[in-house]
What does this fold into?
Amino acid sequence: METHVCRSILLLLIFIYFLYILGKLLNVPTKEQNDHEREKIPVELFVMSRCPDAVACEEVMADVVKEVNDISTFKTNYIATLNSSATYGATCKHGDLECNGNIQELCFQEVNSNQLTFFNYLMCIHRSFDRIGSHEWAKQCSEEVGQDYDPIDKCVNSDTGLNLFIKSVQKSKANQANVSCTIFIDGHKRCIRDGGDWYDCPDGNSDKDFVKSIKNAYKK
Ligand SMILES: *[C@@H]1O[C@H](CO)[C@@H](O)[C@H](O)[C@H]1NC(C)=O
Ligand SMILES: *[C@@H]1O[C@H](CO)[C@@H](O)[C@H](O)[C@H]1NC(C)=O
It folds into this structure.
């Protein structure tokens, strides 16, 4: 009788161990991992690469991202008018050079997912406004922030870059973001910078105000 019970317990333990190993093999995520992924706050900037308001907006956001890097995901989307007869499949307000600049920035984010590095790249790009969108300047800034330009160039000059751009323009349209720069935090329009002014920013437009909004959204 006693050996019978012992054997049952042993079999039960083996069974539990088996389930544990199976779980590991199937990589069933723990609750903690799930929550962590879900809670990162999306921050989206709807911009045009050769727009002075986008430059001003990204300068502020470069300070914000440093404060909230681990709890948020920053992404830029581009405003343009879809147009099948245009070179890039869309017409950019500041010309084809701007379309090219938009694609360079999208490809940078595609190749390098470190958002701090991406903002360092943008800060470099902004140092010479006239050269935004040019191949040489994108390459120089990319190398300055430690990112080899070859994979980005490959993306820019292929369907990968073009598709990223078109998807991005569609996303701006879907969000009714038609002013560069429009800032969305956690899926909601948060603030606009246009014509040198900030507006529609009820919770403020300083770096500290944006940090606060992101931290509040994270705690929710
Ligand atoms: C579409 O692209 C063509 C070629 O670049 C241009 O001439 C035309 O004005 C564009 N249309 C719009 C609505 O932007
Ligand atoms: C921009 O989008 C807003 C809605 O978000 C709309 O009310 C406005 O008319 C649009 N402006 C232009 C110029 O399309």
Observations:
- The chain has two domains: 2-33, 41-219.
- The radius of gyration is 23 Å.
- The first helix runs from residue 2 to 26.
- The chain has nine helices and seven strands.
